[in-house]
UniProtKB/TrEMBL annotation:
Transmembrane stretches, start-end: none
Pfam families hit by this protein: GntR (PF00392)
SMART domains, per database record: HTH_GNTR
UniProt keyword list: DNA-binding, Transcription, Transcription regulation
GO molecular function: DNA binding; DNA-binding transcription factor activity
Organism: Spongiactinospora rosea
Keyword Transcription regulation: yes
Domain HTH gntR-type: 11-79
Name assigned to this protein: GntR family transcriptional regulator
């Protein structure tokens, strides 16, 4: 897994890690049932603390993208690919809207107006 972080990105590192993992899943680098590398290995490769990676993995588990199995590590949930990509794109859109002065509620109102 080749993940990269942008040190100029104002988002917290754990959100950047989660976003990079979502993109990897959405782009097909990891499919349903595939195991991710151990958090410690990802942290070493990125040059960050393992707890930061673990926080990102827990966030993705809470979103239903990953599952933790004792003794088997972390794996991608079936059907997570498209969801992961949509969630990441929604986050990117929210960041973009906020940079241009729109709130989350403004964005929700815009999306609802599209229906």
């Amino acid at each position: 897994m080749l993940l990269t972080l942008d040190l100029n990105d104002p988002r917290p590192l754990h959100e950047q890690v989660a976003g990079a993992i979502r993109r990897a899943i959405g782009e097909g680098s990891y499919g349903p049932g595939d195991r991710l590398p151990p958090a410690r290995d990802m942290a070493d490769a990125l040059g960050i603390n393992a707890n930061t990676v673990l926080r990102a993995l827990r966030d993705l588990r809470d979103e239903g993208v990953l599952e933790f199995r004792r003794g088997r590590g972390v794996s991608v949930v079936g059907g997570a690919g498209s969801r992961a990509l949509v969630v990441q794109r929604a986050r990117d859109l929210l960041d973009y809207a906020e940079r241009h002065g729109y709130s989350r509620d403004d964005l929700i109102e815009m999306v609802q107006g599209l229906s």
